Amino acid sequence: MPPLESLVCLPVLLPLLATGVKLAIGGRLRRLQSVISLVTLAISLVVSVVLMIAADTHGPLVTELGGWPSPIGISLVADRLSTLVLVISSAVTFCVMLYSVANSYDEQEHDAPMAIFHPAFLVMVAGVADAFLSGDLFNLFVAFELLLSGSYVLLTFGGTESRIRAGATYTLMALASSMLFLIALAITYAATGTLSLAHLAERFATLPEQVKLLVELTLLLAFAIKAAIFPMSAWLPDSYPTAPAPATAVFAGLLTKVGVYAIIRLEALLFPGGPVSTLLMWLALATMLAGVLGAVAQTDMKRMLSFTLVSHIGYMVFGVALSTVAGLAGAIFYVVHHITVQTSLFLVTGMVERRTGTTSITRLGGLMKATPLIAVLFFVPAMNLSGIPPMSGFLGKLMLVQAGLAAGGPLPVTLVAAGLVTSLLTLYAVAKTWGKAFWRETRADRVGTVVESEEYTGEDPTVTTTSLPVALPVAVTALVVLALSFTVLAGPLSGLAQRAAGELMAREPYISAVLGRDR
Questions:
Q1: Phi-psi category of 135—alpha, beta or left, where left has phi over 0 and alpha has psi -120 to 50?
Q2: Vertex 267: Cα angle to 133 and 169 (nearest 5)
Q3: pLDDT at 169
Q4: pTM of the predicted model, to two decimals?
């Protein structure tokens, strides 16, 4: 096996091996546990960068698990799309782990069963990597289940009533999605005799249109639940805000994007230009508007960000629905941008909650004076999320707007208009949050104490702030700088997104790499 191809499985195997080591160590040597996590994620990031450069230079890299060739065996495929999102997810998870170590999550209740934050986190990371690299539908299902097992532990970490309730809701939705996925797998295998993506790309061409449509709709529904596409998004704002800040951040940044990634991969490889494109456009329109209107109505920072997360999924679905290279490139660029920005915003919100004890904007105020660094760290990604030029959020939206106008037609143009309205309302929502929580004056007698506003009618009149570990803002600053670097590197990044989209639409490079060029 060529050396580069032997690296493809490492982003999946390394976190799982580290999990085994950490479980063997148990509650002892907690500092060593943190070091193992950070080193593992750092190595995974380096490997991901190497794979991205190799895939962009030489084409897709394939590893056949167990030595069984596709379509009999299961393949892991590293192409431009999978390696690009893998690099970003590796960078984000490293920063989130650094944040969690600094926030002492690994030291809280270390003698209790809940002291498995790091192993659960690494299992979830392995599931994300497996989903991105999977070249087989059944292995993709396994990756989703791996995600669920790790994410449920993270969501319910601490065992509070609200977290258990949110975890139950999240698990029920995930299980419903998994059941739909299994049904789609059964139909697909019965109709084609294979679950290899590359093999399916060839065999679907010979299937009756009704069978293809049934499979496509079932898979789309399963992935739409995971991606929180409206109207399958009601579970998200009630589930994510209850989790610890590192878990919420990685959920918001990554887990919904795994669903979006699956939709991009399958729509481009298995169902290019199918009749479902119109349905996807309507779903994108509804997701944008429903999410952003929900965000505008919120008075809690976490819930506001959860609703903006839903609304901006609509941009990515819009790019996929266009079924053009330009649309897919815009969707890929926006996925990369949104993973980083949304994660940093939730981490900053976690810093606010740790310092003040609340994320209600009716109780916060004066944080710009008390904590100027936190204020800046929230403001910059918030403006990036809103699409203020020349940040990456603006560039991603510009790519999608140009793709929509180039496609023409009433529905794409309507989606372009909806995207602009969503961007403006996002700006309003985050500006209102920043203005009330950070900018407005309070009745505090001293800097560092946050007093309730006149809107708040609760019994506790004062929220006293506490200090933060230095590494917390360092981890968030790294993510904010990474997101800003997308503006500086907009040319190479958009070029890579264009090449990834072209490779997806061509389909032949992926199929040939998996099945062999002499098939």
A1: alpha
A2: 70
A3: 81
A4: 0.91
